[in-house]
Design a protein that fits this description.
It contains 17 helices and 29 strands. It is α+β, with helices and mostly antiparallel strands and 756 residues long. Bound molecules: dioxothiomolybdenum(VI) ion.
Length: 756
């Protein structure tokens, strides 16, 4: 019945999407690039090799703060195969980036002799083979003058007052949350923390750089080839046409590959200096120090309520760590201002500097740690009120964004909670701690709501319909494993009727028409309108040709009288069978292809989207099994219900949601990057010490998409799905852990020692 409700529009006046489901849209299609990946023929950045290529291995600082007093390369330089050792005293000039897009670290590599964090690149050994470069890097002797530093996990540093320079900023405010909280009959006031977490994509960062005397070609593992091009053109001090960034396949990124990291400039400069192709691959160890992480957060949550569950006030005062040189604010209050109805609200945010590498977005940046705090506090409120946590959330649901005072373009949090309850069997839950058993195991059932912003950027795309009956679609975007190659082929197939198997998707080069970064769950919504328009424009060329080509059965017809479907040109009011394959028309006119270009404008440019608040929603239900006899905790069952608009490809979308569940188990139970207080070394920088979930940790995963088109986001009504699946996982896990054990874990991850 929620689908019925949406057709009318949740706010009465919204028109549902005009695009009706077709066979190809919403299909459960395997990735078109799957065979290349599973046969090993897909080439990732570090798989590229060129004649004369040499290898670069960085040397990382072994202090967290201080000055380099001496670099002794005399031994390293004489080692076999070594070409040069580069460092701040002999490096080529590299520039900062102010207008080229977003960089990760503002400070260029080797800018001076200062060290700001353990692992910071301080030298680069280049040799004929990888082993020779590794040996040379190990032989570089560096002396330091260390200085005071901090990697402390507690973020309660003294700080200027709210609003003063360096003090907390108010990000949201309405009503009088302080006074209302002070007099509220029911109060929740707890502080929650989330640790630093490291992105661990299967494929590590790598750059293979070529310089031909004028132009750089950079093979990268990048979630944004266009952004990478724009930044590197600034950093290297060359015009954009002298840089090409190629990233055809990516072994995932989770946000860690959104923006360039210093190794890219190091490889490019080395290639120019030596006039040889240079390969620089990061080790797993370097992944922990040099290419970002989700920063630690500390969040005080205050909720004021009435005994019957009205939310009187909501305050979130949070801090996150950032690096010495960069201000990275984790937007923990991303969902707080609109998720629940309340008249009095404040979100404040502060940065605390630590001697660590620069943090960077990690899947659901801000919202994910923020929802851990908000949804944990909501669970604690439900328990205090003796209310069911699903019912409490339903009673506080709102169809108006009370922050922006705008209706939501499409909000179905209520249906997510209702559908999830049904699928999970929530009505069988008995609220008392430890009251549910399965043999010797104690079961805990928890729930949390999820939210993530929905947006759309600008993009271009090209489509060509070819005389051999195939089609090609291209855009300067990339597919980090999410399914973008497949989704753009589906859109072209939907518009033309050409089967997906005959459509070539081309992504992953900055020489293509500018496309979106794969980030913020916006790539699908951003690229679709450009691809759809390009396909429509290519079809127009075919139809015009059909009306004018000598020998055409449609000679003299106007394009408006004709249509193309099932790959065939026909009279608009007749079936495709009555017409001819489009390639016959192209042959008649001696055309190799019919080409079309398309553009996506920003969100709200073609609908009245700007008058709405747009977000995806979800609800995650978790069962844990706690075995008190052997102190073993396991997530045994997850039901995840997601409202992300129309789903274009059910298979790739389900993959993303299932992956997010697994990542959520990592966040809830396992992951925490630990900095050694003696020297700032992220000391668990390997898979033996930084634990990520394995197959043995997998629960039974049940994914449901509401699949309700968002009428404002675009013709197909598809919002992004990259982050939403993770958003409620950690708080649902800790709620379930409380239900099983009676222990409320407010500091992630849950450790067995917390429970005994
Ligand atoms: Mo996502 S953190 O925008 O890759």
């Amino acid at each position: 019945d929620f689908i019925q409700a949406d057709k009318a529009g949740p706010n009465g006046h919204i028109q549902a999407s005009t695009a009706e489901p077709t066979a190809v849209i919403g299909a459960s299609l395997s990735r078109v690039d799957g065979p290349l990946k599973t046969t090993g023929s897909a080439r990732y950045a570090s798989d590229y090799n060129f004649p004369g290529m040499v290898y670069a291995v960085p040397v990382g600082a072994t202090i967290a703060s201080g000055k380099i007093s001496n670099i002794d390369t005399s031994v390293a330089e004489k080692m076999p195969g070594v070409l040069t050792i580069l460092h701040h005293s002999n490096f080529d000039h590299v520039y900062r980036n102010a207008s080229g897009g977003r960089n990760s670290e503002q400070r260029p590599p080797f800018e001076d002799d200062t060290v700001y964090y353990w692992g910071q690149y301080v030298a680069l050994a280049i040799a004929e083979t990888f082993a020779q470069a590794q040996a040379a890097a190990a032989a570089v002797k560096i002396a330091y003058t260390p200085e005071e530093f901090s990697v402390a996990t507690d973020l309660s540093d003294p700080m200027p007052a709210i609003g003063a320079p360096g003090g907390p900023r108010i990000l949201s405010h309405r009503g009088d949350p302080e006074a209302v909280f002070a007099s509220a009959p029911i109060k929740i006031d707890y502080t929650y923390t989330t640790p630093a977490e490291t992105h661990n994509p299967m494929e590590m960062h790598a750059t293979v750089a070529i310089f031909d005397g004028k132009k750089f070609t950079l093979y990268e593992s990048s979630q944004g080839v266009m952004n990478h091009l724009n930044v590197m053109s600034q950093v290297l001090g060359v015009p954009k046409e002298n840089v090409e960034v190629i990233s055809r396949f990516i072994g995932s990124g989770f946000g860690g590959k959104l923006f360039p990291w210093p190794h890219s400039a190091l490889a490019a400069v080395a290639a120019r200096r030596l006039n040889r192709p240079v390969k620089l691959t990061l080790s797993r160890k370097m992944m922990f120090a040099n290419v970002g992480h989700r920063p630690r957060t500390q969040q005080r949550m205050r909720l004021g309520a009435t005994p019957d569950g009205k939310l009187l006030s909501l305050s979130q005062d949070y801090r996150n760590h950032t690096s010495i040189n960069d201000d990275i604010r984790e937007n923990c209050g991303e969902a707080t201002p609109f998720l629940y109805s309340t008249a009095n609200l404040q979100v404040s945010s502060a940065l605390v500097r630590r001697n660590v590498g620069t943090p960077t977005p990690m899947r659901g940046p801000g919202a994910v740690p923020g929802l851990f705090a908000l949804e944990s506090a909501m669970d604690e409120l439900a328990i205090k009120l003796q209310k069911d946590p699903v019912q409490l959330r339903l009673s506080l649901d709102t169809l108006t964004d009370e922050e922006k005072n705008k209706p939501f373009s499409s909000r179905h949090l209520k249906e997510c909670l209702e559908v999830g309850s049904k699928k999970f069997g929530w009505e069988k839950r008995t609220p008392a701690v430890g009251s549910m058993r399965k043999g010797d195991l104690i079961l805990g059932w928890g729930v949390a709501a999820a939210s993530w912003s929905a947006g759309r950027g600008i993009s271009e795309a090209s489509v060509s319909l070819n005389v051999d009956g195939s089609a090609r679609v291209s855009s300067g975007s990339q597919d980090p494993g999410t399914g973008t190659y497949t989704v753009i082929a589906q859109i072209v197939s939907d518009k033309t009727g050409i089967p997906v198997t005959r459509i070539q998707s081309v992504l992953g080069s900055s020489s293509l028409p500018p496309g979106p970064t794969s980030g913020g769950s916006t790539a699908t919504a951003t690229i679709i309108p450009a691809v759809a328009e390009a396909a429509v424009n290519a079809i127009k060329v075919v139809l015009t040709t059909a009306g004018s080509a000598k020998g055409s059965p449609f000679l003299g017809k106007q394009p408006a009288d004709l249509a193309m479907s099932s790959g065939r040109v026909h009279l608009k009011n007749q079936t495709p069978d009555s017409g001819v394959p489009f390639q016959e028309i192209l042959k008649l006119a001696n055309l190799g292809s019919a080409n079309g270009e398309g553009k996506t404008g920003g969100y709200g440019s073609d609908t009245d989207g700007k008058n709405f608040s747009s977000h995806s929603f979800g609800a995650q239900f978790v069962e844990v099994e706690w075995d008190p006899g052997i102190c073993h905790l396991r997530v045994s069952r997850v039901v995840s219900v997601v409202d992300a608009g129309r789903i274009i490809n059910t298979k790739t979308a389900r993959n993303q949601m299932a992956g997010a569940v697994v990542m959520g188990i990592g966040m809830g139970l396992l992951e925490s990057t630990t900095y050694d207080p003696r020297n700032g070394h992220p000391i668990n920088d390997n898979f033996a010490d930084y634990i990520v979930p394995t197959s043995a940790d997998h629960p039974e995963i049940d994914i449901t998409f509401l699949d309700i088109p968002d009428p404002m986001i675009g013709e197909y009504g598809a919002r992004g799905i990259g982050e939403i699946g993770l958003a409620g996982m950690a708080p649902a896990i800790t709620a379930a852990v409380y239900h099983a054990t009676g222990v409320r874990v407010r500091d992630l991850p849950v450790r067995v020692e917390d429970l005994i």
